Structure prediction request, 720 residues.
Amino acid sequence: GLSRYGWLMHDGENFGVQEIRDGALFLKTEFVKRPGGEHGGDWSWRVTARMEVSGRRAAWAGRRAGAPDSLPPSSPLPPPLALQATGGPAPLLSLFFYVATDGQGTLEPHLENRTRLAAVTGTAEELGHFTLTFLRPTAESGEDPKYASYNYLEAASPGLHRLTEVVRSSLSNRFVFAPPGKPRRRFFAVDAFRGLPGAVGEPPRGRLLLHQVTLEPPGMVEVTFESGSIADRPGRLAGGALSAALAQHTAAFEQRFEETFRLGHKGFPPPQRRFAQAALSDMLGGMGYFHGRSLVQSPLQEHPVPAPEAALFTAVPSRSFFPRGFLWDEGFHQLLLARWDPALSREVIAHWLDLMNAEGWIPREQILGEEAQAKVPPEFLLQHSETANPPTLLLALQQLLPAAPLPYLRRLFPRLRAWYDWYNRTQAGPLPLTFRWRGRDSQLERFLNPKTLASGLDDYPRASHPSPEERHLDLRCWMALASRVLAEVAERLGEPAGPYREMERALSDNGLLEQLHWAQELGAFADYGNHSTAVGLRWQRVAPAAPGQPPPAPQLVREVREAPRPRFVGALGYVSLFPLLLQLLRPDSPRLPTVLAAMRSERQLWTPFGLRSLARDSPLYMQRNTQHDPPYWRGPIWVNINYLALRALHSYASADGPQQERAAEIYQELRHNLMANLYRQYTESGFLWEQYSDSTGRGQGCHPFAGWSALVVLVMAEDY
Prediction:
């Protein structure tokens, strides 16, 4: 229920600024890393807290929702607002700082008065010797000391994913906040830890030390981490030194952002530039290093088995809601991050390719470690070794290719070849040069249209009855892109590129594409398969388990009113656009005007906010897939596909052909609609969203979603 939280600035390496708004509480967290020594260097955090009176917040909210010059997200902080004037004391605020080991490392607490954790010294394999120091809180100016109560907890750690439970189970309200000359008040604080239910007898995973600071806002707390391998430290990175470093990094970030994306040069006003900075920063701030084992089901084994231990450095769609790697999301993430920091992006792509098994398969979801597993429903933990995901990493690699170091490409190339061969071997379709996503849902009676999670488009309508005869248009287009990129990498390395170029030419052949995927009766490109157009969901009564017992609740089940037959699938939407999205259609293609017309038709894909995922006149538009499964890719607007559409339109608008002018017109309109709506929703709600309503433009689904929705930065920069 936080009204806003996220990174406003983050350079992905040494510096970040985050704001959190929780009711009337405003929190700002900032960090600076100072490289040095043999273990990464020192870092310092500053946490600033204050209360904001409701009248002031309401005025700001009104301005944010109104004119575009509303209060920008990263403006200078307003003056502190004392709440005593409202008739009561300021509420107490407790900040909890967790220090924990996970499997290895040592921690030694250094206490003052048995309650204040002043410092922690320790060792870890990656960090060597280090000292963490918790400085006493001050007023916001950083000058005057601030009265605070301190509490300390030491406990065996049951695992990082359960630390919050440890703290919650240790809270007691027997403590008294007693500032000199002010009323005494009880507050909750950590006390003794008596163990977690169900954890009796489990060996500890590590050690937890917890520092709790309780104060009346406003106030500021700083924490420093000092590496033992730095010999000539210029002084502690705190107080004035930290303020100076933050100011220096802020200026450097803003300059680098402008040099990279040139939004000021393009005429965007400061609030919109700050929005773009926040989108990039939230993606960078959500990056993580994950370690653990995937749970894999192979057709060669009867039962699921844990995969070998793996490590993954990656961006994530949403750090709070989806704190794990998704294969097809990551290619879109890296399109943005490759512009900001090509070396960082190359490292992430290499991590993903290192997850490949001996056959060349990469699990599409990376649920590594207990923290990641704790956020995933059990039915989604299992990864099936025949299930693919779009090879979007190749989109990013194509952008990185011209400047990528040759030794890096040499290490990558065998993995790219194995991955490409795996797709060709396992996802081949029924005819030459056709492809079929494996792993569609098999419980036909449950789903209005069985899902195709492998495609990334989940519930997008496919053939109503999955069969080996299906031909999936989007996968064929992805394979054309893969052939093109493999050829470009091979040519850069002086390796044989002929087979890849030959495959690219075959898959890009517009005549063959039409023969296999143009549905004349639909006037669109389409999938082909065993399909019924008369399918619906109906309520079915369920018989009682035994005589005399009440019947279970009715169930929504699928009803097929017309037998399926081999035909093109009548679902105009994102899949229909793939020959355009991945630029397989020639600029003079006779089909291009029809595709552009469907894109621009308000009856079909066009909205004032972006392209909807499924045409309004499509039979499954906004239809539920099950009783508990609302429409996902059946109408809402998704930024990643809109980005691909803009990228393609931009290309067709610069290529000679009869549709050049029309492509340019649609490009300008679509770019404006998408940017304006994402910015409007951000200023009103405080977040980027997973998807956007095609009828109102409102953000919906998961938030904050600084995954592929952050591609709006590249749209603003017109960097494709």
User: Anything to note?
Assistant: Confidence is low (pLDDT under 50) at residues 55-87.
